[in-house]
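Action item from last week, closing it out:
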Amino acid sequence: MKKEDFMKIVRSKAKTTLTEQEENFFGGIGEAVEQAMTAESVERNLALKAITDKLGGIDDGETFASIVRNLATAIDDMEKKSKRSFTADEKFKLKSLLEAKKDEIQRARKGGAPWEVEFRAKRAASALMTTGTVLTGASAINNVNVFDDMDITVIEYPKNFILDGINSRQVAKVPKTVSRKEQLAVSDGVVAATNEGAAKPLTDKLFTWKYDTRKKYAGRIEMTEEVEIDFDQLVLQIISMFEDDVLRVYQNGVLADIIAWADTYASTGLDGTIANPTVHTVIGAGQLHIRNFNYEPDVIFISPTDVAKMTYTQDNNGNQMFIPEAFQFAGLTPFVSNQITAGKILIGTRRTVKEQHGNLIVRKGVHGDQFIENESTIVGEIFSVLSLPTQSQTSWLYMDVDTVAAALQKS
């Protein structure tokens, strides 16, 4: 305790403002308290006893001596709580050091000379960590000058992007089934120009019920209690990575469903008209294909390899062609990811695909014999329901670059 802290306590306990003499008196006591607090327990207790013998009472009956004694008790309690027992390994090391100093200690005891032994103990974490599989590559380091870098190097994965490319929203509770009415292509009668006094054409609209079923993307990890105790920061990183895994699989699953549902390239007015088809012209043909069905595409999903091909396009003489960034994707919002196979391109109309998902749910519990084995399981899951209307299938196109380029090639 500092002298200033001691004086604050004294002033707070005094009924009236301290005089200059009282300030000087208690200031001296404060210095003694400060020195006593930094001493070892035996010397500190002697010093504090000397201080309390000199202190008098306060008007309300409480003594400054009781304040000092309470401070001493608090410090003793803190010291007791901070103490820990030696491990078997630490005891062995200490015993070895004492054995080496045995002759010196005996001479010191007989002659009353001082002696010392330097002992350093570094508490290491358990090396098991869930049967030794979580943390590997560790080796014994007989050196206390070790810096534990808290930054963790992890495997890099593609960014999650699908939720920005479709009409997606988060809901509090994902329904098991989404029912919707989808128009049938078949209907009777059409609107037409009619003469005065003539009967107007009779038309109708037919619909059918469609149902979309909820999916669950989930996984779990298991760990021992020792892992959580010894590697708390690593465990937090593992849980964060596990959450990313669940989200990544969920978004990849949504993307896979869209690819399986999307239309395939048939033909457009660009077929057989391009002398040197490139990825750019393939994208243009894909846009035309979708527009032929009265949709306006606005997003493109493409692999890094095909993006590179677009950047380093050459003319027939091998000269580099510069394509301004504004024209690289023909006005489509690009999503670049390795989840799209090189040589494949997905183009779509964002508004026609609807998806609902809930929060990422993370739970911790035990199952089987985990309770008696000091183990626990962390479960992560997310629910999603995706609507892919049959009548809107032509608003999305999944095409092979080489196949479409061959169709565009001018003969």
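Closing note: The longest helix spans residues 232-261.
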